Amino acid sequence: MQEMAKINVDGQSVFLCHYPMREWPGMWKGTVHLYGHVHGNLQPMPGSMEVSADVWGGKPIQMAEILGAMALFDAESEKKRRGSLRLRDWD
């Protein structure tokens, strides 16, 4: 059994690992990271998502559903990031 794998699902490059990672192969080229292990106890980061059964109601989920949830989270994260930027006051 492999601990990590990189696969393609419906044209989307996906990096799989039991554990969450803050950087993964292909991260800067559009590869998303799906992980388990933390049972809903870790805030996701853009481009990654926990797919443990207990987080998704104990049922299988489609890749489109995962990507949709990621898009919503990523958009909200970007709004928060932009809101926290401080620009220098140029007198």
Task: Summarize the structure in words.
- The protein is α/β, with parallel strands linked by helices.
- It has one domain (4-82).
- 24% of the residues lie in helices and 21% in strands.
- It has one helix at residues 63-84, and strands spanning 4-9, 12-17, 32-35, 48-50.
- The chain has a four-stranded mixed beta sheet with strand order 1-2-3-4, with helices on one face.
- A hairpin with a 2-residue loop joins strand 1 and strand 2 (12-17).
- The protein is globular and about 45 Å long.
- The N and C termini lie far apart (61 Å).
Oligomer classification: single chain
- Report the span from N to C terminus: 61 Å
Strand proportion: 15-25%
The helix/strand order is: EEEEH
The secondary structure category is alpha/beta
User: Sheet bearing the most strands, described?
Assistant: 4 strands, mixed
Overall pLDDT confidence = 86
* Shape by Cα distribution: globular
Number of helices: 1
Helix content: 10-25%
Give the radius of gyration.
15 Å
Number of domains: 1
Contiguous low-pLDDT stretches (5 residues minimum) are none
Task: Please give the number of β-strands.
Answer: 4
Widest beta sheet: strand line-up: 1-2-3-4
Protein name: Calcineurin-like phosphoesterase domain-containing protein
Draw up the topology in text.
Elements: E1 4-9, E2 12-17, E3 32-35, E4 48-50, H1 63-84
Parallel strand pairs: 2-3, 3-4
Antiparallel strand pairs: 1-2
Summarize the structure.
This protein has a 4-stranded mixed beta sheet with strand order 1-2-3-4, with helices on one face. Helix content is 24%, strand content 21%.
